[in-house]
Structures are given as C-alpha cells and as structure tokens.
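Notes to self after the Tuesday call (sharing in case useful).
The group wants a holo model before anyone commits to mutagenesis around the pocket. I volunteered. Ligand is zinc ion. Logging inputs and output together so the record is complete.
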Amino acid sequence: MREMHLLPVSPTWYRREWSGVGIERIDEPHVHEFLRANIWHVVGRDRDLVVDAGLGVASLREHLPHLFTHDPVLVVTHAHLDHVGSAHEFVDRRMHRDSVVDHNMAATLRGPELAHLLGADWPGMPPLLVDATPPGFDIGSYTITAATPTATLEDGDTVDLGDRRLRALHLPGHTRGSLCLFDEEAGALFSGDVIYDDILLDDLHESDVDQYVATMLRLQDLPVQTVYPGHGDPFDRARMLEIIADYLRTRAPQLLTDELHVGPLDQGPA
Ligand SMILES: [Zn+2]
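Result:
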C-alpha cells in the first residue's frame, strides 16, 4: 500500500519499563495511544506470567526473547487485536472460552476501518494508527494469527507462578469473554480493558452495558490496591473507585444511592 512507503521503519518496536516489584510493562510506542496496549510481564519463582500479547505486528519472540525463557504462561484478557496479536507465539496460552481466536482474524491499523471492524461509531479517527512500522511489516496484509488456547480459563481458575497465585475473574461488558487476573495477596489487578483510566468502551459489537454495570459493582468490592490496565498507566484503588463511580453515574444512575457512594478511606484489605 502507498502509505507504507511513507512511514519510517523502526528496528526497535517494543518499549520496556519496570512498573512494580517483579512487574514489567511493555508497549508499542509507535502505535497511536488509542490502540497502544500494555503487555504485562510478571516474574514468578517457578514460571513467568505474560498478560496480553500486543498487536502482533512484530514478533515478541524475536524482539523480546527474555519473555520466553522462564516457561511463561500467557493469559489473554480478551480477543481484541491489540491484546491477542502475538498470542500464537506462546506454548502455554489461556483465555476465556468466549475469547478464543480459532481462525486468522481480520485486523487493520487504519482508524476508520478499525472503528468499522469493532462496530464503533468513532468519527475523527486518524487514517493510520501507527507512525512507523517494524522491519518487513506490510500494513496491507496485517491479520491476527489464530491462537487456540492450550487451556480455557473460567471465573475462579488460578494461575500459579510458585510465589504468586492469580485468580481469573470473568468480568464481561467490554466483551463477552473479558477476563481480569487478580493477585489477592499483592492487591494487584491486571484488568485488560475491563477498567483503565480513560473512557470505557461499552458500545462495540460484543459489548453489553448491563453486564458492564454488574462487572463494575463486583470490581468495587474487590480488595484491589493497584490496577495494571490494558491501556495507560497503573493507578491506585482511589482512582479505580472514581472510574467505577463515573461509569455507574452515566450508565446506571439509579444504583448510585448513598450507600454506593464510595470513598477511599473505608477500603483496603484486612
Ligand atoms: Zn478491547
């Protein structure tokens, strides 16, 4: 396609930073903020956890081989292209049964096409959602490679890293199969697109507002201290409760009685 000749090629595709004890954040800086998702790498005693797998435009195995050295288990929070792209590169990959990508999936880095693909009405999307490409990448033939799970995760299932145990929480609303992973001991929630610090998307093909409301009510009762979201920076419990309250105010104002007004002081693990 013509635009690929106009874009610079970036040999370095991923950006890494430590973002907590034994938690590394990886993202794709040449991707527009709208589509730029986090990959969370959690170092465990017996094995590592990787939460989500980026857009799949650059091989994770080639660019970030350290992710694959400690028997990693990949958990995909949901089957949107910005979270599942490189899932096929992992030997052990788990997701909810409603997030299974069992065939090569249409994908695009063009804004208006993406809105159409996801079923959203987003005027003003930029024509292109990247400002560079990795070497050898062809925007015109971008698709998501099928990645059938080696195991499906249901609500309550655990992922055991030896010194950390994370519980899968099925929290639909953004998509039917949306999962979060919760490390209760650390109060750490890997939330995918269930909650992040921006406008929450509940108007896509697979979204369901009633389910999203129920998900928010469940989330606010969890002893979360830090949210590691699918997009943007981590945030604390107080901010999580504000985001939940904002969502409920918009989508379910009838629920916002006095008892549901949440404050940061009465929360926290025992
Ligand atoms: Zn999503």
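Two things stood out.
The radius of gyration is 18 Å.
The chain has one domain: 2-255.
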